[in-house]
Amino acid sequence: MANGQARPPHPNPIQQAGEGANESLRELYDNLPLAGLNVVVTRPREQAAELARRLEQLGANPLLFPLLEIEAVPDEQRLHEQLSRLKQADIAIFISPNAVRYGMTAINSLSQRGITSDSADVVWQPSRMASSSTKVGEREALPASLQIAAVGQASAKALRELGVARVIAPTERFDSESLLALAELQGVAGKRVMIFRGDGGRELLGDTLKARGALVEYVTCYLRRKPDMDAGEMIAAAPSAITVTSSEALGHLWDMLAKADRTGIAGTPLFVPHERIATAARQQGWQHVVVTEAGDDGLLSGLIAWANTERK
Residue 47 — very low, low, confident or very high, per pLDDT cuts 50/70/90? Predict the structure, then answer.
């Protein structure tokens, strides 16, 4: 498929088998909770595979339509200069799995040069990185005194997979507000906090920590870009439902629909993991907005509940 076009829904195994398919297999497929539904997945392409796989297991036809492209920062010198101060920080907060991927890769790169840590005790020693092309060094990367926090469980999981055992993260709603409510982020006056994130984004986390007396530094370790996608391709695939997981992605989608039939597509059920995104969607004109729990599990549970209701 050429760049800028949505990947069409996968044919299900019964469709591929043709008319002579085993009837029991056909019945099994038809009984899957999302059988035959065309579900749009708008996450960045690198992060969409797992959700698409699970959708297929539930019988859906996932349509990949990434609304964000993720890139490394071009100014590595600025990033490395910031990371040289990591050993003076008290808390490092990772906003997203991409912040973990790009931030920890950069930290690991500098640790091999002896820049990010000179402590004998560490909370993380590089063992596995998100990119298989990253050369893992022997030098410690994160000082033992550094507290590590994440906005959501997906980011916390990514950190744990890299060997960071102790991660501060909310266990219910996964947003800045929930992280700020945790006890570990209350008494932060005088503490140095580094927030790893993409370019731009909400300022609530940093502003609140500053109001509590913390010294906050944003570390932009990746860039988000609006991809060149044709919304007409998505509309032509007759989506049954659309999933959107960020307000920025929602804005990109609405912009892309400016040259298409906004009125028609706005009637398609839209599944989002946060009320903030839902509010923006309703203001745009989406007619059927469903707020789910966070993460893949939340989106899938919401889709299944909706599908069950629609089929009654």
Answer: confident
Which amino acid makes up residue 302? G
pLDDT given at position 29: 60
Fill in the amino acid letter for 294. A
Q: Tokens in use for 131?
A: 């990119």
Tokens of 159: 């950190």
> Which residue ranges form the domains of the chain, and what is each CATH number?
13-68+229-310 (3.40.50.10090), 71-225 (3.40.50.10090)
Dihedral, CA of residue 304, residue 253, residue 287 and residue 52, to nearest 10: -10
Q: How far is CA 195 from CA 156, 199, 221, 269, in A?
A: 14, 11, 10, 34
Partners of 219 in beta bridges: 196
What is the distance between the alpha carbons of residues 116 and 80, in angstroms, rounded to a whole number?
Answer: 9
Paired with 222 in beta bridges are 72, 198
Strand residues in the chain grouped as ranges (E): 38-41, 61-64, 69-72, 91-94, 122-124, 142-143, 147-150, 192-198, 215-225, 241-243, 270-272, 289-291
Q: What is the pLDDT of residues 130-140, one digit of tens each?
A: 333 333 332 35
Query: At 163, which amino acid appears?
Result: G
Long-range contacts of 267-272 (CB under 8 A, 24+ apart): 268/239, 268/240, 268/241, 268/242, 269/240, 269/241, 269/242, 269/306, 270/241, 270/242, 270/243, 270/244, 271/241, 271/242, 271/243, 271/244, 271/299, 271/302, 271/303, 271/306, 272/243, 272/244, 272/245
| Distance of alpha carbon 5 from alpha carbon 110, whole angstroms | 38
